[in-house]
Amino acid sequence: MESKTKLYYDTNEVAELVGCEPSALRFWEKKFPQLSPKRDARNRRRYTERDIEIVKKIMHQRDKQGRTLKGTREQLRRKEEAQLLIQRLLRVRKFLVEIQEKL
Q1: Nearest to 76 by CA among 95, 98, 97, 53
Q2: What's the per-residue H, E or C state across 38-81?
Q3: CB–CB of 18/52 below 8 Å?
Q4: pLDDT one-digit tens code per residue, 44-83
Q5: pLDDT in tens, 2-53
Q6: Which of 15, 26, 76, 101 could form a disulfide with 22 if both were Cys (CB 3.0 to 4.6 A apart)?
Q7: What is the DSSP letter of 5?
Q8: What angle do CA 29, 33, 38 make, to 5 degrees?
Q9: β-pair partners for 38
Q10: How far is CA 3 from the centre of its chain?
Q11: Listed residue (23, 52, 20) closest to 36, CA to CA
């Protein structure tokens, strides 16, 4: 699969991959802080696999779930916070297990 071998994609490639217009990608970049493609030396956007997954989540929330931009932004923020909380809890659990083993 070509999608797993490339590190960066340009705007037109991403638009074709996910089935939207390049202008939508540029618009969502302004509305969603999670979507932040890097810029190359010529100031062109370079999307990573992570960026593409975020675009897919935005499209799913909008098209399949019927959410507004504000609702989609809030949902993505909540999921991000939940993932961070899970990571913190896993670190605390690991720490407690280490302490238990030492006792």
Answers
A1: 53
A2: EECCCCCEEECHHHHHHHHHHHHHHHHCCCCHHHHHHHHHHHHH
A3: yes
A4: 999 999 999 999 999 998 888 888 889 898 988 899 899 9
A5: 546 788 999 999 999 999 999 999 999 999 988 989 998 999 999 999 999 9
A6: 15
A7: T
A8: 60
A9: 46
A10: 16
A11: 52
SS3 9: strand
- 37 beta partners: none
Q: How far apart are CA 38 and CA 19, in angstroms?
A: 21
3-state SS record for 14-41 = HHHHHCCCHHHHHHHHHHCCCCCCEECC
Q: Which residue has the tokens 């540029």?
A: 26
- Which amino acid type is present at position 93? R
| Amino acid found at 101 | E
